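It is worth pausing here to work through a concrete case rather than discussing structure prediction in the abstract. The textbook approach is simple: state the sequence, then state the predicted structure, then interpret. We follow exactly that order.
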Amino acid sequence: MQGKGFIKFMAILLGIVCLYSLSFNLVTYNVEKDAKAYAKGDVAKEKAYLDSMATVPVYPGLGLTYQQVKGKEINLGLDLKGGMNVTMEISLAELTKSLAGNPTDANFNQALQNAQTQMNNGGKDFITAFVNEYEKLAPNGKLADFFANQDNANQLKANASNDDVKQFLSKEGNSAIDRSFTILRSRIDGFGVVAPNMQKQEGSNRIFIEMPGVQDKERVRKLLQGSAELQFWQVYQNEEVVNILENINKTLALTVKDTVAVTTTKPADTASKGSKLANLTKGTPKDTSATAKKAEASKINPLFSILSIPTYVAENNQQALRPGPVVGWTLQKDTAKVKAYFARPEIKSLIPGTMKFMWSLKPMEGSKVFELYAIKVSSLDGRPDLGGDAISNAMQGYDQKNRPEVTMYMNSDGAAKWKKITADASADPNNKKAIAIVLDNTVYSAPTVQNEIPNGVSSISGSFTLEDTKDLANILKAGKLPAPAKIVSDFVVGPSLGQQAIDSGLSSFVIAFIVILAFMALYYNKAGWVANLALLINLFFIMGVLAAFGAVLTLPGIAGIVLTIGLSVDANILIFERVREELAQGKNTAVAIKEGFKHAMSSIIDSNVTLFILGIILFIFGTGPVQGFATTLCVGIVTSLFAAVLISRVIFEGLLSKKANISFDNSVTRNAFKNIAFNFVGHRKLYYVISSVIILAGIGFYVKNDGLHLGVDFKGGRTYMVKFDKQMNTEEVSKKLVKEFEGEEALVKTAGTDNSLKITTPYHINDQDQNADKVVESALRKGLDGLGSKYSIESSQKVTPTIASDIIYGAYGAILFSCIVMFIYILVRFRKWQYGLGAVIALFHDVLLVISFYTILDGVLPFPLEIGQDFIAAILTVMGYTMTETVVVFDRIREKLNETGKTDVYGEERNTLINFALNSTLSRTILTSLTVFFVLMVIFVFGGDSIRGFIFALLIGRIIGTYSSLCISTPIVIDLSKNEKKAVK
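Step two, the predicted structure:
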């Protein structure tokens, strides 16, 4: 064998790289083991220990810190570690509107709305859709009239064409997405997530973010969705606004006839307490008990029945207006109603154009009462007195009373403006004014200015937690998002589910590995042990390469590794079966091994290339778990070829040089699959009938079940995995939840066991309110509480209809693109379009059969059979199996033709040739199928509930793929070549 030295060198080099990459896992394991020993079960203590080790060198020799080493180990995905992933969508509609100066033109705004509708239905390019829609609505309209404004003058001229505007908007849109990616990355880094995974979804306005170990989903949502638009505003004093509020109340009393009686809370007087913004202070009232308002009084005072004017008891024991910037107190549940009152046309006319109302960030301490502020708009363009661009840095710290605060540092221009603003506000010693610090239209603080602040250093403090100030400093430092960003998909996994997934994944991995080792050793004797050694080396290489690439290991990823190991024996089986054929012809062992490797190589290359192509397509079209599966599959195929073909060949050469006795069978397996001559071609019409019957049955159940059972990632909605302390009746749970979901569907199915339920609902999925998630979860918990059983929500997932439509079209694209690529590959390799078309027909046949079995068995099996992303991954993998086995048969046909010196044969001679190829490769087909089937069965039994539906698709797909490669893809070539036969005759 040529190149043995080079192969050994490459194996040693790859081994060193893998050892280095995997060593980081060992180092972090030792540090975390010490942390557990130190904490003795105290989670907070363990976290504090690890935080203290973050900058301490822990890698001997290299001097790498724990934080550096942690970032280099194999990252565990959410399903193994727990955590959260989200898909953020940058609002190009809001960006476009902002660039145009928020016009009120009806055609402009209708075009924006139409373009967004197209995006929701699976569109890709918002800017193109917007321009096209505007030109439809206003054929003679010029977009430059909107966008060639003062802010964009250096990029867009007044006479610019619509195409010029389109290019400008596309450039600004791409820039906004890039800047959003950078800002979100900074925010996440500041959040302290270890090894976050962020990806821009090319060709779209979406960013995928994965954060292992993160559980506080509300904090994450607030961190990511906040646009960070920091503003400093002057505010009206309470006495300046009270008359306006009284007029509003009187006007409402004339128009609101049926005001429902409500309760309110009226805070009593407290001494003014200083909260720090450098030398700024403000009063903080405390909450007292709520008093019920009578229905009649509510009709007389609609506004004041839910909004209290801040007052206090003066020295004369009379009620007096409380001085300061707070103009109202309202319970949290009534804030939306107050906002709705202010939005009425008849009320808007009573509010001066220089005034706008904003709520406080949080309720007052110990209450559910929010403060209302009246912001003073003093500039003609409606802009704040000072913007967030004045902030150069922000840091979390503590004030003089040891309360968490955020210190802001302004740039020179901002410091100069801030000096003037604070000087004006504190000029009158008898009437010092307040300044509101606003972030994303919410008042964080509105302290009264005591003195001029000359150096641009100020601080924000109040009723903040340490995490609040850390996040606020992080957001201010990272900067403002160029366009609003919203979460269109999220998935949360609890740490208990993660540990369960780790245990089940490792169990399936170990058992499947032992099954393969035992099979190879028993069937192929000593040669089987060579294959096992190559398999162990292959496993080491796979894990090392994944670690080196910084890949995220998920449960589908582990399934991909196990399947790769199962498939890697395919190369050895191909080689060993060819060696056995050569030995049967009387050749000695050395020659048989040489010829076996030579003749098997073409089939091995073709079959692995087809599967690798499928892996690439999976990676391109898939997201999350599908990409994890595809990554490990592609890495495994490459390392398998190296280990199973090259390293095993070197091992055989070494054994031969030592005159060792190498056996490829035993007394039981020696004559297996000998003298088989099954007429596959002659029975092909029977197979067509069998397949047709199954597909027709699938269509019947499709109609009966009102279509396919689409998962949440294909139709949009929220899914919750809930574990109860006892067995639950799914119908009873569903009825209870439908009531709480206001009649919306609640699909409840068991997930492996009767006390684990998967609950899916479209309730409020189209609601754009940021509190929609809380509303749905609150309704869910209310319904579950009424069942009288203890429960825990193990994980949650949300997918909006927008992203669901993208997944559907991506799935269609993956399958169609796969078929096209396979047809081209086979056409190039075998130069017969009938072979390529036969293989593609078999692929569609496989897809239809798998879907048919899903529709027939849905509701029969004790786990849900949903059509989702995992199912598409399974379909594509099944297609890979069929292609792999079909290519091996085609390769044998080509080899036989080459031996006879013919380019093709026709008629009965072709029937005989195809039957020969199918029978001569039958041992390899059956053995490989059984090996993979055993592996899949192990994963199915021990691999956990989260991938059971996925593995079931692979199991039936494995059976269908074997059946298809033997009975459909190759025999159908006969029927596709009928015209050729007639022409020959």
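Step three, interpretation. Confidence is low (pLDDT under 50) at residues 258-293, 981-985. The two ends are 48 Å apart (CA to CA).
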